[in-house]
């Protein structure tokens, strides 16, 4: 059977994978799935990020939805969490977000939502099976029909964030870096409404999209400089569809997503926190029971439901709050951090300094998927005497507590190496060693 979904939605080359034919058929398949498999009859909301291929993809997705007589709400350029939340609280029962998230500008992707959540792994398999059956009989063509153009998803999301804040944040200065992506239209306005002095950088849709991986070191270096120059309380950076958030402290320290989300976790109710295998050990030191999962927001959300956790997060800065919806949300992550600073009367750097310091290095390299198993097998042989965990990829744990993770990306033809140590130089040395092994297989 055809495999469409990766770690988080469907991703691939904008021209080779997201052909007009494919976009039509996946749109039609999703509408048919909602109407017939789930017996959900209602509007489907669509949104997109501002990369150059998104509008063409949108057009053919809409044709596919129309072929199944679906009612369509076009929410325009909007952050992914806007669309997720909208399908939870409005009459729109399904949603399709066209976004490549953090991947290169020549790639794109789709995220599918049902009633306020990304489709589960079980639903992904059912959609793939249905697509496999329907693709031979579907005939892509332009279908006429009405599409309701609106921005209710954005407005509904903004109201939710303002209500979540429960008051304003006077005398607070924040640098916002949206990478000229979807949050350019949302978070600066929300923060100003809450009394925050906002310094914008890369918040202009008229400029080229900066599709940056929030886990790549140095990706938000310009934001860090702006924070220092403006003596801001902190900086907040988003990926192109706005469901990930990363922070820079008032002293210019760039925080990995697992550090900032660990701070938020510390102040969340409940005894559990859920996070994937690749996140920092710092989360083990905040007084919560830690549940580890495979990498992926849907994996985290599923485990949160199982153990009754109120909060979960990924290493990329994607925080998930059960009381809002079971999906990543850069907006609520920002508001929650502001509330913590307000209630503790501490600056962000002080909160970071209260945590034990671990150093992480996260690197990736383009790698053909057929090499993945060979690389993992070689790593297993090389480090055979170490403790191993194979929940997702191969995690090697040293007697010192340092660890090295080999993992193939589920979203793109890339291979990732993660390392962590209490010694900065050792974290770098281990990562160099791991990357050397990976690169030895790449011609």
TrEMBL record:
Cofactor(s) the protein requires to work: Mg(2+)
GO molecular function: intramolecular phosphotransferase activity; metal ion binding
Domain Alpha-D-phosphohexomutase alpha/beta/alpha, chain residue ranges per copy: 3-134, 170-252, 270-357
Highest rank taxon of the organism: Bacteria
GO biological process: carbohydrate metabolic process
Endoplasmic reticulum is among the record's keywords: no
Record's keyword terms, sorted: Isomerase, Magnesium, Metal-binding, Phosphoprotein
UniProt record similarity statement: Belongs to the phosphohexose mutase family.
Protein name: Phosphoglucosamine mutase
Organism of derivation: candidate division WWE3 bacterium CG08_land_8_20_14_0_20_41_15
Upper classification of the organism: Bacteria, Katanobacteria
